[in-house]
Design a protein that fits this description.
This protein has 170 residues and is α+β, with helices and mostly antiparallel strands. The strands form 3 sheets. Strands 5-6-7 form a 3-stranded antiparallel sheet, with helices on one face. The protein has a two-stranded antiparallel sheet with strand order 1-2. The chain has a two-stranded antiparallel ribbon with strand order 3-4. Strand 6 and strand 7 form a beta hairpin.
Length: 170
Amino acid sequence: MAKSEATNFVSVTVSNVVEQCMSQQGVEYYDLMEIHHQESDGLTTVTGRTTAINQLRNQITQSLVQQLENVDAEQLGVPLGNLTGWMLFSGLGPKLRVSIDSVGDVVTEIRNQFDSAGINQTHHQVLMDISVTVHLFIPGEITSVTVDTTVCLAETVFIGTVPNSYLQAG
């Protein structure tokens, strides 16, 4: 139960930190990606603004580590009634403290995902994979919990010219 509560807590913390960092910087698609369109051949290229992407990634990682290191020990706990195994006492009694005393790892990776969205349409997402491992100190035991999540930092749909005819084989 402590693992489940810690997983939920870390998931909410990750979401809040990402939302806070994104709104502080006012990040939009064009802040992270640069689009070049060549009129001569109709080709469109996308280039990542690596400095801006890395700054956002670093801010999210640092904020996440800071938030998790400053968790109040009172925030996590398992009601003593849950330990009896009887449904009648579930959720009752004083909370047995569970503390996150150290953040094991915070790993963040940025990746791009391109998906077909129709005839000559491409859906592009800039995604951040976040993996957080925390160590829980439960009376009598130390256990680790890893939470993996993916957040979308930016997305757009590229629309190309529609051909006069379209043939799909197979």
